[in-house]
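G., the chain you wanted modeled:
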Amino acid sequence: MRVREHTGSFLLDAIAGIDIALWGICGKACRQPICRLFGGSPNLQIPTYISGLEGDDLHSRLSNAPSQAAAGATRFKIFLDTTQGCLRLIDHLREKCSEEIEIYVDALGRMTPKSALACARQLESRRVGWLEAPLKPEDLRGHGRVAANSPIAIAIGESYRTRYEVLPFFDVGGVDVLQPDIGRSGLSEGRKLSVLADTFAHTRCAARQYRTGTADSCCPTSERSLREPACY
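Predicted structure as tokens:
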């Protein structure tokens, strides 16, 4: 409940679904992709990452990574269980694939500000791109403190549906990478979240579509966010 509906309720998810459906109807009626309805030209090449490595142990989690890398995957996000286990996985992942792959870590809100900063310092030495969802989603002050002192970017966004929920985190400097879940915020609100990210010029926007596991999904529901100046 903390991750999905703690502050916004299922009502916002329902509204998001209707919003996406209406944009889809408009796109079909105009015979245009939704990104064209928003104006401008969309990015034709979109970076993605593999979200999570399945398996119950280190060996099984690493078993599919080389074939994914051989198929062209250059970015992986792994989920933190314990800090030491996560660090071992990162080290072995680079050995199995390449030193040049990009790695991100999702803590799933399991940390305290103190443990998050300690972990971030160790992740920095391993060239991790960001630490995602380090704290409980309602910990506003904690996110501000962590982001202000972390040597790597702090990513949040999946737990929030609207700009009204996210704005306080910008105000306290608690977000470096905004990750709106377009499937849950809707396209209309997603565009406003993207503009909000652009307003705080230091913030990047990694648009998400839940279940795709992509940093910037090529599905229609995230095309708009990818067009914003602060997005990548």
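Strands lie at 50-51, 75-79, 102-106, 128-132, 153-156, 177-178, 204-205.

Shout if anything looks off.
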